[in-house]
Amino acid sequence: MVDETGVTFDFEGQSAEFPWPDIQSVHSRPGGGHRLMVAVVLPGGKFYECVVKARNRATLEHWFRDLGHVLHVYLGRRDNPPPWTP
């Protein structure tokens, strides 16, 4: 989940929360099928990855489009990859 507080990865009842001030960058790319791969990079180079499965291709495309806009808003002028365009 990406919201005003930061990025949260949830997996099998466990969660990892990354507040925006602690994030150096966020990267995303298609992961095959209807999957979105997201990586959160922290200062110092440590990173965490998560794979999210979309219900269909349209949902995946929507996520990519929106993720780019959200990252731009919350990470401001930091360098982030542009959103993926199918």
Q: Please report which band the strand proportion falls in: under 5%, 5-15%, 15-25%, 25-35%, 35-45% or over 45%.
A: 35-45%
Estimate the global geometry from the Cα principal axes.
globular
Gap from first CA to last CA: 22 Å
Quick one: CATH class? Answer: Mainly Beta
Mean pLDDT: 85
Number of distinct beta strands: 6
Number of helices: 1
For the biggest sheet, the summary is: 3 strands, antiparallel
Describe this entry's structure for a reader.
It contains 1 helix and 6 strands; from the N terminus they run ββββββα. The model has no long low-confidence stretch (mean pLDDT 85). By secondary structure, the chain is of the alpha+beta class. It has a single domain, classed as PH-domain like (Roll). The protein has one helix at residues 57-75, and strands at residues 2-3, 6-11, 14-19, 25-30, 35-41, 47-53. The longest helix has 19 residues, at 57-75. The chain is 22% helix and 40% strand. The chain has a 3-stranded antiparallel sheet. Strands 4-5-6 form a 3-stranded antiparallel sheet, covered by helices on one side.
Layout of secondary structure:
Elements: E1 2-3, E2 6-11, E3 14-19, E4 25-30, E5 35-41, E6 47-53, H1 57-75
Antiparallel strand pairs: 1-2, 2-3, 4-5, 5-6
